[in-house]
From TrEMBL:
UniProt source species: Planotetraspora kaengkrachanensis
Matching InterPro entries: AAA+_ATPase, ABC_transporter-like_ATP-bd, ABC_transporter-like_CS, BCAA_Transport_ATP-bd_LivF, P-loop_NTPase
Keywords on record: Amino-acid transport, ATP-binding, Nucleotide-binding, Transport
Organism lineage: Bacteria, Bacillati, Actinomycetota, Actinomycetes, Streptosporangiales
Gene Ontology BP terms: L-amino acid transport
Family, as annotated: Belongs to the ABC transporter superfamily.
An MF annotation (GO) of this entry: branched-chain amino acid transmembrane transporter activity
Entry annotated with the keyword RNA-binding: no
Name of the protein in question: ABC transporter ATP-binding protein
């Protein structure tokens, strides 16, 4: 469903991705792993069109994404939860969700109810400004906002980072339920335990190149740990 081929990208003169190829199959969860600074976030940003590629291609459901803006990619069915918080702090939780409905291709407010079923703990705080929420609640809201666009591919950059253990657990459960519903996902995750529990397929990046890739079964080995050691 998502096919990345020979992707090259960087910042100014500094190359970060060197010929990265990977894919996400329909209804599958591909987990991108690797040490800090190897290019995981850069890869997601290029896939979403936030950052330009200097070479290679990205196709989604058979369609080339070259030249499309991030919002156009969202309209095609790609949802993105970037690293850290991504909410409008002054707007209420409901306001954050409604803004996203209005910007989405379907403009269907029942998508908000569906997203709140995935993160029911948001229901008691719908009128609170997003900026006043705990980091766990803000993370739930960021994920709910991406769901409101009704993506067919959900892209998540370290959704469990920097929140307490109970929220990590809940996000893991939500990801499992979403995958069970048929949603394809591209996940950057550094917690190996969580990644092993969730992923169908793995891509391990090292210094901007794919060091290993394969199904979760294929990668259940000790060298995976070596590639992830700091
Ligand atoms: N905005 C930026 N400008 C310049 N260099 C950057 C920028 N963002 C990331 N980098 C560099 O690109 C490399 C990859 O970063 P990143 O994709 O964030 O890695 P990861 O997500 O795997 O930790 C790092 O060396 C980082 O310092
Ligand atoms: Mg990162």
């Amino acid at each position: 469903m998502l096919c990345v081929e020979g992707l090259e990208a960087g910042y100014g003169g500094a190359r970060v991705l060197f010929g990265v190829s990977m894919e996400v199959g329909r209804g599958r969860l591909t987990c991108v792993m690797g040490r800090g600074g190897v290019g995981k976030t850069t890869l997601l940003n290029v896939v979403m069109g936030v950052l330009p590629a200097s070479g290679g291609s990205v196709t989604f459901e058979g369609r080339s994404l070259t030249g499309l803006r991030p919002d156009e990619r969202v309209r095609l069915g790609m949802g993105y939860v970037p690293h850290g918080h991504d909410t409008f702090p002054q707007l209420s939780v409901m306001g954050n969700l409604m803004v996203t409905v209005e910007a989405s291709p379907h403009k269907d407010a029942t998508a908000v109810d569906d997203a709140l079923e995935v993160f029911p703990l948001l229901k008691p705080v719908l009128n609170r400004p997003a900026g006043s929420l705990s980091s766990g609640q803000q993370r739930r809201l960021a994920m709910a906002r991406a769901l409101v666009t009704r993506p067919r591919l959900l892209i998540l950059d370290e959704p469990a980072e920097g929140v307490e253990a109970s929220v990590v657990f809940e996000i893991g459960e939500a990801i499992e339920r979403l995958r069970a519903s048929g949603l394809a996902m591209l996940l950057v995750e550094r917690y190996l335990d969580l990644a092993l529990r969730l992923a169908d397929d793995f891509v391990i990046l090292d210094a901007g190149r794919v060091a290993r890739s394969g199904t979760a079964e294929e990668l259940k080995g000790e060298d995976v740990h070596r590639l992830l050691e700091v």
